[in-house]
Amino acid sequence: MTRYEDSGYDCQHPLATFVHAIHFTIFRLMFATVPHDLAARIIRAMKRLLLALGALFLVATGCDLPDRVGRLEKQTKELRADVDKNRAELDRRTLAADLDSQAKCSKDAKEWFKENWGSSDKDTILLDYSNHYNRRLNKCFLSLEWHYWIDKNSKSWRNHMDLWDVYENSKYGSVSEDHMNFPKTETKEKVFRCELLDKTCKTVQEWNGLAYSYLND
User: Max CA-CA distance within the chain?
Assistant: First the structure.
């Protein structure tokens, strides 16, 4: 009879167990000495046979259970290691691509700004920009900020900001806010243009909120 031993557990081969049960039952029936008890013995023998078949199923499914669990654990560790390795490689390539795109956006935004806003007049107080490569939209955005005098005598000035798509050379929106100074009165601030694509706003803070996703994603 073929046997397997695993960690001290004696596990019979399923086929051998089945044959053994059949032989045992036939032997008991052939050598029974009391004929009138034949029916009772057959019933008892069939019960034992059914119990043997049930045990056979349990043994057949459980004999190599420790080995199968060990193999599954090993395969799971190997798969997890492969996933981690592939994820790290993907992150590395994504980061490298992002850095290249950001560098290209910075270079192109600088050239765009120089070509379109490179010179300023005598009324300019501040003219500056920042750029950002938006990975989600795959676009290079430029945020322009321009402060200039409305009235030097009263120190009144305007803050104007634009959001541009550098590669499409298209303006997404703008906001203008006047800072008016009147003699012997308080300074008044007034927003008279505030929009970004199909959305409108009332303050510079609201406009910054609309532009945030384009300049940070």
Answer: 132
Are 178 and 150 a contacting pair, CB within 8 Å?
yes
Count of alpha carbons within 13 Å of 153, Cβ hemisphere only? 2
Residues 123, 150: Cα–Cα separation, whole Å = 8
| Alpha-carbon span 216 to 141, nearest angstrom | 10
What is the band of 11 on the pLDDT scale with cuts at 50, 70, 90? very low
Amino acid at the residue 62: G
Buried b (16+ CB within 10 A) or exposed e, 138-163: ebbbbbbebbbbeeeeeebbbbbbbb
Residue ranges of the alpha helices (H) in the chain? 14-30, 38-62, 65-117, 204-216
SS3 state at 106: helix
Given a contact cutoff of 8 angstroms between Cβ atoms, the answer to whether 144 and 161 are in contact is yes
> What confidence tens digit (pLDDT) does each residue in 107-161 have?
999 999 999 998 778 899 999 999 999 999 999 999 999 999 999 888 899 999 9
Residue 10 has pLDDT above 50, yes or no: no
State the chain's mean pLDDT as an integer: 77
Cβ(159)–Cβ(149) below 8 Å = no
DSSP 3-14: EEEETTEEEE-H
Residue range 164-188: average pLDDT?
88
Task: Give the residue from 210, 207, 208 showing the smallest Cα distance to 192.
Answer: 207
Beta-carbon count within 10 A of 12 CB: 18
